[in-house]
Design a protein that fits this description.
This protein is of the alpha+beta class and about 650 residues long. The strands form nine sheets. It has an eight-stranded antiparallel sheet with strand order 14-13-10-11-12-15-22-20, sandwiched between helices. An eight-stranded antiparallel β-barrel has the order 24-25-26-27-28-29-30-31. Strand 16 and strand 17 form a beta hairpin. The longest helix has 22 residues. The chain is globular and about 80 Å long.
C-alpha cells in the first residue's frame, strides 16, 4: 500500500479521500488555489501546497504544477477525485511518465471512453445496446443537420468529450437545431475545450440507471449493482438511490452483464460507472462510461458496506479486487441528495458568500454527511457550489425516504441561498415516493417543486409568532440582572390595560403582523380577522409544541433574534425574517430599464447592440458562471440604449450590462 498520496482536487471529494487515507495510515498531501487557502481539505490534510490562482485553469487543471508538488512532497500516487483532471488522458500519462501512480484507469481506457463518439463505436463492436444516432467525426453543421433529420426528432445533442450535463440540448424540431447546436458547442468548448458533438434519438420519459464497475490489474472485472439517477434537472442529478425501484432481478442481471462487458472492452482498471438510458418498457441503451469515481458513490457504499476509495487505492497498488461478483450482497436502501448554494426560485442561480450558519444532522447509522465546508467558510464563485452530500439508509425504501425527510428538516443554511426547501418538496413528491420519476419530469413540472411566493396560512403565521414570542421572553429573562423583577418579563404589560405586543415577520419580502396578548406560552393571537388561542406553548431547540385552538401540535422550529425557521404539519419549510414591530421600509425595484449581472462571471456571447428593438424575454447576453451558462434576457420590450459588456469580459455581480431607452 502507498505511504504518501497526493489528492489533486478540492472540496467534498478531497475531504472524502483524506478520510479513507487517514483510516489506512496513508500520509495525505493536498493542493490548493489562492481561493482555497483556508479551505477544509487544506486543514484536514497532513500537508498542503499552493498551486496557483483561483480559476481552475490556473490551479486545479495545472497538471504540471500538481506533479511538481508530488515530486517535492514525495507522493507515490495521485488521487484525482472527480472533475478537474480525473478523466484527463494527458495528465494520466504524465503521471506514468513521472513515476507516480495515477489512481484511476489506464490512459488508454480514458481515451476510449473519454469521447462519447468513440465509446459508442466501441460498444457497438461489443454488442452493448446503443441508442440510434450519429457519433462520427464529421462535424460540419450542415452535415450534422442532415444527420439530425435522418435520426429523427426529438433528438439529443451531446458534447462528445463531455459529462455532467454540459453541452447537452434536447431538440424537438428541425427549426431549433442550428441554435441548439451552436449553444451546445459553445458550452462544450468552455467546459472541455472540445466542440465536437454526437446526436442521439431522444428516448421519451427515460430513466437513468447506472452500474458501478470495478476492475483490477489481474483481469478481474465486476459490478457493484446499480444506482438510479432519474431525478434530474437540466441533466444534473438531484437525487440518487439504490436499489432502483424500477429494476426487476432479470433486468438487473442483464444490465450488470452489459456494464461488465463495456468495462472489459477497454481493459478497465479501477472504479468506473457505466450509464444507461432505460425506456418505459425496460429496454436499455448504453449512454456513456465515466472513468472515475462518481459523486453518488456513497449510496453504493452504504448498501454494500464497502469503502470504494479504499478499493481504488488497493487496486492502484496492484492488489486484486477484495471480492468476487458472487460475494457482492446488498442490504437495505440508500438515498443521496446534494445540498447546493443556489436559488431554486431564480432558476437555480448558483450562489456564493460566507456560510454564516451551517447546520446539518448528526451522522448516525442512518445518516451520512460528506461535506467540504464548515460554518464560517465561504462558497466561492470559482467552483461548483455544492455544500455537502446528505446520504440516508434504512432497511427499505419507504423508511429511507422518511429518514431523508427527517434529515433535511434538520438542515439550515444562512448566507447564500440554498436548495434545501426544494429537496424537501422532492422527497415528498408522489413521483419520487412512488418511484415513477423520469429524467425530464423535473423540467416539465418544476413549479410543483418550488416554494413560490404564496402567503402562508394563518395557522403557520400563528405558530411562527408563538415561537418568536417564547424566544423573546426567554432572551429578556436571561439578560435581566434580576430575573425576579417585573421588568424581566417581555409581556408588554402596561398600567391600566392588558399587555399587547406586535410580532412582525417577513416572508418573500412581504410583511406580516400578528398581535399578541398574554405571556409564558399562553396567548391570544390576531392577524387581520383571524384569531387563535394558544396554550401550553413550549420551545425546544428544534421544536415548538402547543395547543392551537385546542388542537395539540408539535412542529419543527428553530428561532433566534433574526429569524424563525418553521416546518408546518405537512413538512413544508418556512423561513421568516423577524422585522421591527413598528418600522417598515419598502424597497423599489430597479425597474425594467437595465439588465445587470446576477453574479460574477464571464460574458461568452453578446446578442444585442445599441439601437436594437427587442421583445420582452429576448436573449441579450449569455454569461458563464460556476460552470454553467446563464441567459440574460430583456425585462421588457423596448429599444437598447447601451451595451456595456463585451465577449470574453469578466464582470462583477450587479454590474449594469444593458440599458434601455426611456
Amino acid at each position: 500500500m502507498f505511504e504518501r498520496v497526493l489528492i489533486a482536487n478540492r472540496g467534498e471529494i478531497a475531504c472524502r479521500v483524506i478520510r479513507t487515507c487517514r483510516r489506512l495510515g496513508i500520509h495525505t498531501v493536498a493542493v490548493y488555489s489562492e481561493a482555497d487557502r483556508d479551505a477544509r481539505h487544506v486543514r484536514l490534510a497532513d500537508e498542503a501546497w499552493p498551486i496557483g490562482g483561483p480559476r481552475p485553469a490556473d490551479s486545479y487543471l495545472r497538471g504540471d504544477a500538481i506533479l511538481e508538488v508530488a515530486r517535492k512532497a514525495g507522493a507515490q500516487a495521485i488521487h484525482p477525485g472527480y472533475g478537474f483532471l480525473s478523466e484527463n488522458t494527458g495528465f494520466a500519462r504524465a503521471c506514468v511518465e513521472a513515476g507516480v501512480v495515477f489512481i484511476g484507469p489506464r490512459p488508454e481506457s480514458i481515451d476510449a471512453m473519454g469521447s462519447k463518439a468513440a465509446a459508442k463505436a466501441l460498444m457497438e463492436k461489443h454488442a452493448v445496446p446503443l441508442v440510434p444516432g450519429y457519433h462520427g467525426e464529421n462535424q460540419d453543421p450542415a452535415f450534422l443537420a442532415e444527420q439530425a433529420r435522418k435520426t429523427g426528432f426529438p433528438l439529443m445533442i451531446k458534447a462528445a468529450a463531455g459529462g455532467g450535463g454540459k453541452g447537452m440540448r434536447i431538440v424537438r424540431g428541425e427549426g431549433e437545431f442550428a441554435d441548439a447546436l451552436a449553444s451546445a458547442q459553445r458550452e462544450a468548448a468552455n467546459a472541455f475545450g472540445d466542440t465536437r458533438v454526437i446526436l442521439e434519438r431522444y428516448v421519451e420519459h427515460p430513466r437513468h440507471i447506472e452500474f458501478q464497475v470495478f476492475g483490477d490489474t489481474h483481469g478481474n472485472v465486476i459490478h457493484l449493482n446499480e444506482r438510479e439517477c432519474s431525478s434530474q434537472r437540466r441533466y444534473q442529478k438531484v437525487l440518487e438511490e439504490t436499489p432502483s425501484p424500477f429494476l426487476t432481478p432479470a433486468r438487473r442481471q442483464a444490465m450488470g452483464e452489459a456494464a461488465v462487458a463495456a468495462a472489459r472492452a477497454v481493459d478497465y482498471v479501477g472504479a468506473g460507472t457505466v450509464e444507461f438510458i432505460v425506456g418505459t418498457d425496460g429496454e436499455f441503451f448504453f449512454m456513456e462510461m465515466n472513468t472515475r469515481l462518481q459523486v453518488e458513490h456513497p449510496v453504493t457504499e452504504e448498501t454494500l458496506g464497502l469503502d470504494l476509495v479504499e478499493w481504488q487505492l488497493r487496486v492502484a497498488a496492484g492488489q486484486p479486487l477484495p471480492l468476487k461478483q458472487e460475494q457482492i450482497q446488498a442490504h437495505g436502501h440508500a438515498i443521496e441528495v446534494r445540498l447546493y448554494a443556489e436559488d431554486p426560485e431564480q432558476n437555480f442561480l448558483p450562489g456564493s458568500g460566507k456560510l454564516v450558519r451551517l447546520r446539518l444532522p448528526a451522522p448516525s447509522k442512518h445518516v451520512r454527511i460528506d461535506g467540504g465546508v464548515v460554518e464560517g467558510d465561504t462558497v466561492t464563485i470559482f467552483y461548483d457550489p455544492m455544500i455537502a452530500k446528505l446520504v440516508v439508509r434504512d432497511t427499505e425504501r419507504p423508511k429511507a425516504l422518511e429518514r431523508l425527510r427527517e434529515a433535511l428538516a434538520q438542515c439550515e443554511i444562512v448566507g447564500p441561498k440554498s436548495n434545501i426547501a426544494f429537496l424537501e418538496r422532492l422527497a415528498r413528491h408522489p413521483s419520487v415516493v412512488e418511484g415513477t420519476i423520469d429524467t425530464g419530469y423535473l423540467d416539465r413540472h418544476l413549479d410543483e417543486f418550488l416554494e413560490g411566493d404564496a402567503a402562508p396560512a394563518d395557522r403557520v403565521l400563528f405558530a411562527a409568532a408563538t415561537a418568536a414570542l417564547l424566544q423573546e421572553e426567554r432572551s429578556v429573562s436571561a439578560s435581566a440582572a434580576d430575573p425576579h423583577s417585573p421588568w424581566a418579563s417581555a409581556d408588554a404589560w402596561r398600567i391600566g390595560h392588558a399587555g399587547k405586543r406586535v410580532v412582525a415577520l417577513s416572508l418573500h419580502e412581504q410583511r406580516y403582523e400578528v398581535t399578541a396578548h398574554g405571556q409564558g406560552g399562553d396567548y391570544r393571537l390576531e392577524h387581520g380577522e383571524a384569531t387563535c388561542e394558544v396554550h401550553g406553548a413550549r420551545l425546544e431547540p428544534d421544536a415548538l409544541s402547543a395547543r392551537f385552538d385546542g388542537e395539540a401540535q408539535r412542529l419543527g422550529a428553530r428561532v433566534d433574534d433574526t429569524r424563525v425557521l418553521l416546518h408546518d404539519a405537512a413538512g413544508r419549510r418556512y423561513r421568516f425574517v423577524r422585522a421591527p414591530a413598528f418600522a417598515w421600509a419598502s424597497t423599489e425595484s430597479a425597474g425594467g430599464n437595465q439588465v445587470v449581472a446576477p453574479m460574477p462571471g464571464r460574458i461568452v456571447l453578446v446578442k444585442a447592440k445599441p439601437g436594437d428593438n427587442v421583445e420582452e424575454g429576448q436573449e441579450l447576453l449569455v454569461m458563464e458562471a460556476m460552470k454553467m451558462e446563464l441567459a440574460l434576457k430583456a425585462p421588457r420590450a423596448g429599444t437598447i440604449e447601451s451595451v456595456s459588456a463585451t465577449q470574453g469580459e469578466f464582470v462583477e455581480a450587479d454590474a449594469v450590462l444593458v440599458r434601455f431607452e426611456g
